[in-house]
Amino acid sequence: MRLKEFFAKKCRQSKGVKALFVLCFAALVVGSVGVIAYSAQDTTDLCYGDVDQNGTVSTDDALTVLKHVVKLTTIQEGLSYQLADMDGDGELTATDALEILKTVVKLVPERVYEGSATEAPPATTENPAETAVPDETASPVETAIPDETVSPTETNVPDETEAPTETASPAETNAPEETQAPSDDSVVYMTSDITPEGLMAVYNALNWSPTGKVAVKISTGEPPASNYLRPELIKDLVQSVKGTIVECNTAYGGSRAETAMHMQVAKDHGFTEIADVDILDADGSMQLKVDGGSYLQTNYVGSHFDDYDSYVVLSHFKGHAMAGFGGAIKNISIGLGSKEGKCLIHTGGRSHTSPWGGNQTAFTESMAEAGKSVSDYLGNGERIIYINVLNNISIDCDCDGNPAKPDIHDIGILASTDPVAIDQASIDLCFATEGSDSLKRRVQNQNGLHTLEHAEEISLGSRTYDLVKIDE
Known about the structure:
By secondary structure, the protein is of the alpha/beta class. It folds into 2 domains: about 5-105, Dockerin domain (Type 1 dockerin domain, Orthogonal Bundle), CATH 1.10.1330; about 185-470, Rossmann fold (3-Layer(aba) Sandwich). About 30% of the residues lie in helices and about 15% in strands. The protein is built from 14 helices and 14 strands. The chain has helices at about 5-15, 15-30, 60-70, 80-85, 95-105, 195-205, 230-240, 260-270, 330, 340-345, 360-375, 420-430, 435-445, 450-455, and strands spanning about 40, 55, 185-190, 215, 245, 275-280, 285-290, 300, 310-315, 320, 325, 385-390, 410-415, 465-470. Strands 6-5-4-9-12-13-3-14 form an 8-stranded mixed beta sheet, sandwiched between helices. The termini are far apart.
């Protein structure tokens, strides 16, 4: 029996001991030919088969796929899944593992991944199969391209000596200086005290009072081990504004894709113990008008969005595999979007039902435009404020249940009425901190600062700011 057929048959049949047999056999095949891991030759490009994105296509990558096939582990939908899908059929099978092994032993050449985390992978040269962009009327492909995706630690990225392509910002790689003299710039308040007391202090510095019913937008965090903001940190603030914790379902599967499961995660993570929790899109979408957008004319948020008069946007600042980074703007765009809204943002307004077919520029600009519609709807920003917590700063999002270990030490908490200013200040502080190389590369690779550029262009906020340190 040919090796390829053997793999396919065993992975269809394997359970328990048979699963282990398949994995052992794969290791023995490679060991018998004396092959060591084939390096990506110091290229900064991703290659198909490099499932763990460590710059090397190796037997470990093949074994990871086999473990997924026999359900010993799971490769989440996203960039890792696309790199593992060697034949481009949208499913991970023993065939994909075999193609990775062929790449390791150089029976087939390495193929550079020329797409992005928002594009489908092309087929292999042995089994060509074009992947078409789904029609608007097609059924949703929610698991294909997530709005929030899982990615292991990224090491195969451009050298740090390369300058970012983004246009000028206040201090993209240097620590922002506290401005003493008054100016017309947006004010960002900061404390280095990452405690419930520090959070309350920086909130009070805004001198802002909510009106009516208050929503506190957070990320509930993907299990089992994401870096979401812990209830014990945010409890005092949430209860002081008599807030309801709000979230929206994900568009990529996982534990928070449907309301019942999402509510269970909120309970498991302790949020239901400190406040009521509302999944905003449990009953579908409502539309917000987008003024002056390049890609969006309408933004679709959860239908419960209008049940609240004021919003406190409480964001854990971190990296993100698709957006480059996640902060205030991502929290009010992707974070408040219903599944329909998430698809529109990812595709630059092309599809209500599928996230396929967008490009990175359309994605980043659509996030800014969706965020602008939220701010406009809430009294042109009068009824919404933003707080970014800079702790446990990994290159991976809180949607990643097993994120990369944080490289940057805890920095502090920022608060502002300007989402652009607070995200820019967060970037500046993180980039100036030791251990930020991986985050810089991730933001640069995904052109993440373009979200801030476009947000400023459409008057969502300003990238220049005064940093006021309330501890001094």
